[in-house]
Amino acid sequence: MRKFLHVSKGGVCLAALGLVMMGIGILRGEMPIVLQKAINICMECIGIG
Prior knowledge:
- The chain is an all-alpha fold.
- It has one domain (2-46).
- Helix content is 80%, strand content 0%.
């Protein structure tokens, strides 16, 4: 059980960095842009757009 709960410091740091970067992107207003690009890519793959 102890090995299961072991968390590496590097993994925690990378996860925290990812959350910080996501927060910065949201504060800069990039979320609608990313969503629109994702919709366009999805529509192209399906063949609708």
